[in-house]
Amino acid sequence: RSVLAVRSKAILITDRAQRVSTSQPPKPFITSTLQQDAHSRLGMAPKVTMKAAQTLYEGGHITYMRTDSTRVAASAVTQAREWLATQYSPDYLAKNPMFYGAAGDSNAQDAHEGIRPTDPTRTPDAVQKHLTPEQFKLYQLGWNFFNPKQRLSGCLADVIYKTKPPTAQLIYAPPVGVEDERIVKQLLTTL
Q1: Given 3-state DSSP classes, what are the helix, strand and coil percentages for the chain, each rounded to the nearest 5?
Q2: β-strand partners of 156
Q3: Which of these is catalytic: 57, 64, 88, 139?
Q4: Is this structure's pTM higher than 0.70?
Q5: Contact 11, 162 (CB under 8 A)
Q6: Which stretches of the chain are assigned E, i.e. beta strand?
Q7: Could you give the CA distance from residue 130 to residue 56 in angstroms, rounded to a whole number?
Q8: Closest among 94, 60, 66 to 78, alpha carbons compared
């Protein structure tokens, strides 16, 4: 139990529960998901997206952009995993390589891979000076979408607090942890 006073208000925290969930990385881009994400995240119209993607493809920066396959070449997966291990730590890599593709895409024409950078080690910063602003934003979106697929699955933690208005007798105990105190103070600022 904790009581925190903020802005002359006191709230009794009667219970704290933590809920943990995981999230898997999404499948690689196909034409439609590239257009959707470019529109929702970057505000790019489909025509602008495809023009920038075509130029990136012609410049050797991304794989072919008109595809409905999520398959990724084993060599690209290996290259991305090796790069991530040098940039972060092997501890952050998924235990097994993440492959997507034909096995689950029975309706896909598997002539092309999913949309990805041709060289996963070529960061957006490394190619920015060679690209227009639209091309750079799209390359960055694709690069950020592809490389994390080889990292560990995301782990999300929700902390749930049950509270009561203060009683006549005020009982104080230190917060459960610094993070709890910060979260509760954020919650109280919205009261």
Answers
A1: 40, 20, 40
A2: 21
A3: 64
A4: no
A5: no
A6: 2-6, 9-23, 154-164
A7: 10
A8: 94
